[in-house]
Amino acid sequence: xxxxxxxxxxxxxxxxxxxxxxxxxxxxxxxxxxxxxxxxxxxxxxxxxxxxxxxxxxxxxxxxxxxxxxxxxxxxxxxxxxxxxxxxxxxxxxxxxxxxxxxxxxxxxxxxxxxxxxxxxxxxxxxxxxxxxxxxxxxxxxxxxxxxxxxxxxxxxxxxxxxxxxxxxxxxxxxxxxxxxxxxxxxxxxxxxxxxxxxxxxxxxxxxxxxxxxxxxxxxxxxxxxxxxxxxxxxxxxxxxxxxx
Length: 245
Ligand code: PXP
Known about the structure:
The protein is 49% helix and 17% strand. The chain has ten helices and eight strands. It has helices at 9-18, 25-34, 53-62, 75-84, 111-123, 136-145, 155-160, 165-182, 198-202, 214-242, and strands at residues 3-7, 39-43, 67-71, 88-91, 127-132, 149-153, 186-190, 207-212. It is globular, with a radius of gyration of 20 Å. It starts with a strand and ends with a helix. The relative contact order is 0.12. The structure holds pyridoxine-5'-phosphate. Pyridoxine-5'-phosphate is lined by residues 7, 9, 43, 70, 90, 92, 100-101, 131, 151, 190-193, 211-215.
């Protein structure tokens, strides 16, 4: 069975919608651990749209499973990663205008800068993962950087799910997983995985871990709604019974 990394970015998205202090991703991480999360994943974006620097600092001190920090390949982010020492850093491409990470890191096209980043992080004892599209050129380039892990981008598969194209995308991921294993890399995967499409990816035996965020946070909002409303009603009931209403 693959391990489950739970990405809690979108708990912070809800908090940032009001720029208040709830819901706190630190609390969400503790609950995810109670639910069996094998890893907590966060993406500190350059525009700080969801996870904040404070979240990384507090999570580093409170999370009891491995902490995986996703970040762009630039000096600011590498310095933050090195200062906070997550167990793992996943290097991802980042564009300010994108809604979410679109496409994998072009490791083949930026071999020198990615190799340098991998070396800087590795020297500090941080495991490095590269988030790449499931294509041969990127896997080969990833192995050349010295990184020990690739995370295969499952977005194209997730978008194709329910269409004839899905089988082709799934085969691509399987081929990339085998290839990365042959190059002695650990293989993770993630992006766009949901309660409906995850089982096809989870069945790939080379895959060590899946990182899943949006779908789990979405489900948490819905399965928690009834209890949240009930608890608010109880407060209303208690306060009105105290004034005789
Ligand atoms: N893996 C990586 C590298 C990502 O950038 C993301 C999105 O932040 C995920 C996994 C999780 O994707 P999703 O939120 O669609 O489950």
